[in-house]
Amino acid sequence: MRTWIKRTLEAIEENNLxxxxxYLQLSTKLxxxxxxxxxLHANTAARKKSQLARxxxxxxxxxxxx
Length: 66
Description:
By secondary structure, the protein is mainly alpha-helical. It contains three helices and no strands. The chain has one domain. The chain is elongated.
């Protein structure tokens, strides 16, 4: 899970939107699985998913013309 979160953040830093979206989907899936297996608290998972989604959304809007 942590690997996919790191890869998502690295893709965001590199301004690579397609890769960031793909890693966001994978990391969200793994975060949810960890909650299911009681390895991560539900609120912590929600916070991590929200932070990643906001970062990817910021990358999407940054590429839009003003």
